[in-house]
Amino acid sequence: MLEQLNTRVEECYQQAEAFFKRPFKRPVVSFKLRGQKAGVAHLHENLLRFNPQLYRENADDFLKQTVAHEVAHLIAHQLFGERIQPHGEEWQLIMRGVYELPPNRCHTYAIKRRSVTRYIYKCPCDGSDFPFSAQRHSLVRQGRRYLCRSCRGTLVFSGETRVE
What domains, with CATH codes, occur in the chain? Predict the structure, then answer.
């Protein structure tokens, strides 16, 4: 898995070197990215980070589009310096001219949302539900109080949880 991605990064660099007729410093490649982003280029560290989950789920498009997208950021930075826009005309030139790919700013991969536990608090005036995050529930356990906006009574944990 990582081998294919590294091979594609190298191909992108060789294409850029042939196009611009100059060498480019190779980046460190990492698979330590989670969440919604498919890839991130760290310009000053010359580092590329990729999301292994999205790569597994979208391997073909990921190798073709996402890897070229992130490499283009590093190439643009090395060619044109710091004052360019992340997805500006210089980056777009590289995407279209070097890689012959559409300069799409964002991926369209399906993102699986992780489940979240909500802690149900109740209002003393009417018994309305107030779902609290784990962080807010923890703050209540440490002594913080939250009040109902209607009656100004303290919201009380019902003992119920809900997974969303």
Answer: 2-98 (3.30.2010), 117-163 (no CATH)
